[in-house]
Amino acid sequence: MTTRNRPLSPHLQIYRLPLLALMSITHRITGVGLVIGLLGLAWWLCAAASGPESFAAAQGIIGGFFGKLFLFGFTVALFFHLCHGVRHLIWDTGKGFELDKAYLSARIALGATAILTVLAWII
User: Fold this and answer.
1) pLDDT digits 0-9 by tens, 43-83
2) CATH number of the domain residue 113 falls in
3) CA–CA dist 55, 73 (Å, integer)
4) Fewer CB within a 10 Å sphere, N or C end of the chain?
5) In degrees rounded to 5, what are phi and psi of residue 58?
């Protein structure tokens, strides 16, 4: 057998993924994050229904640094998933498939995510 000196395929560290690919991947990740966040919400509601001691313990966890970080991540995931879902609804009408419009809508979705997250945390 002879070995050929063929080039190997580069790994993902070499490629720079385009914005549209990163948006698609992030949409899937935020969907999983929303499920985890909803489990946290269900835990908080069960603690509230279980009595004042359980609710105080849950509030202590959520009120801490990691709890607030979790809530912030959930908020970002919620608004990103919402804005990207609106993009998909627009695509379902057959509009926005041109590459320049797809990139523009991606940037608008990212900006709307940031604005909605900041507004939610300020209000």
Assistant:
1) 999 999 999 999 999 999 999 999 999 999 999 999 999 99
2) 1.20.1300.10
3) 22
4) N
5) -65, -40
